[in-house]
Specification:
The chain is mainly beta and 353 residues long. It has six helices and 24 strands. Belongs to the glycosyl hydrolase 16 family.
Length: 353
């Protein structure tokens, strides 16, 4: 059993101490992977296998294929690739993508076109999404990673509950340790604020339904020409019943303090309190597991933002946004350069308090 000594101040990848008030916590490392085995350890990780593009209408299929997630020189790569490179472009006209037939499984209790798609309903990108088999309820999460560069890439390091104790998303909560966009020239249209590869964001999500929820968050920006795709950084979460602190390296980006009367009251959510049976920190009082993935496109991108030198290559109102994205590949594909489009992960550590 490991004894860790932390400060109550800023916590970083190295547990920086910023004041003289220290607290001793008894902690156990429940998960560690530095990828030194040379392959993805199936005792530690599960692959998501799905064809529907996730909850934000993204443009990727998640596969267990080695071209989309692999280990090289002690680093995990999560790499988006073109579906047409794997199956041929004719798949979008006459093809069938049957994930259970291809891989022997499809993640979750998916129905219909979430596991089997035909023709132009097939997503144009293949990518990887890994889920930790370990989980924690209160603890420290550290992921040392370098983010991808390339237009419309959406890397994420996040946590979801191991079971929907309070109900389906967002009832049981979500913790976003890092989300970013791979675009080099992407900004808010009204004030020119960067929103691409120089910016990352942290959020928490909670509420009784998708249209009655809260998603408070904060962005963190690099300056002087630095990009998150240039170097490795430690993205971390420090989680107790009293707070959720999210940060990078030795910086605390945001501390979400547990409200004295709970998140339901603090969020002014409508209806009966679905977390009344839990702690004041509910729904963040249950075990969560870690997710690493690279998505492409979808609602995380804002059609009102400016991208240079061309606008967003799909329209949010179109029924088949992913095929419009594919048809406009001459715009974005030149920004995708080999393994630069991969999220690279050196290590993952999960400590249980």
């Amino acid at each position: 059993m490991l004894i860790l000594i932390f400060s109550l101040g800023v916590l970083g990848g190295g547990y920086a101490l910023t004041d003289d008030h220290h607290v001793e916590r008894r902690a156990t490392t429940v998960f560690y992977d530095d990828f030194s085995s040379g392959q993805i350890d199936t005792q530690k990780w599960d692959h998501d296998v799905s064809a529907h593009g996730g909850g934000n209408e993204e443009f990727q299929i998640y596969t267990p294929e080695k071209l989309n997630s692999y280990v090289k020189n002690g680093v995990l790569y999560i790499l988006p690739t073109l579906t047409a490179d794997r199956f041929g472009a004719d798949i979008f006209r006459h093809g069938v993508l049957d994930l259970p037939a291809l891989y022997g499984r499809c993640s979750g209790d998916w129905k219909g076109n979430k596991c089997l798609r035909k023709g132009d309903q097939i997503k144009p990108i293949m990518s990887g999404k890994l889920l930790s088999k370990a989980s924690v309820r209160y603890g420290k999460i550290e992921v040392v990673a370098k983010l991808p560069k390339g237009d419309w890439l959406w890397p994420a390091i996040w946590m979801v509950p191991t079971e929907d104790h309070y109900g389906i998303w967002p009832r049981s909560g979500e913790i976003d340790i890092m989300e970013s966009r791979g675009n080099t020239h992407y900004e808010q249209s009204w004030d020119g604020k960067p929103e691409g590869v120089t910016v990352e964001a942290v959020h928490i999500h909670y509420g009784p339904s998708w249209n009655n929820k809260k998603a408070p968050g904060v962005e963190y920006q690099l300056h002087n020409g630095h990009k998150f795709s240039d170097d490795y950084h430690t993205y971390w979460l420090d989680w107790t019943k009293d707070y959720l602190k999210l940060g990078i390296d030795n910086h605390t980006i945001k501390a979400f303090i547990t409200p004295p009367q709970g998140h339901w009251h603090e969020g002014h959510l409508q209806g009966d309190n679905i977390w009344a049976s839990g702690g004041k920190d509910a729904p963040f009082d249950r075990p969560f597991k870690l997710i690493l993935n690279v998505a492409v496109g979808g609602k995380f991108f804002n059609e009102g933002f400016k991208n240079y030198p061309y606008p967003q290559p799909w329209h949010d109102a179109y029924a088949n946004k992913s095929m419009e994205f594919w048809a406009n590949r001459h715009l974005w594909q030149p920004t995708w350069h080999g393994e630069d489009v991969a999220m690279k992960v050196k290590s993952v550590k999960m400590v249980q308090y």
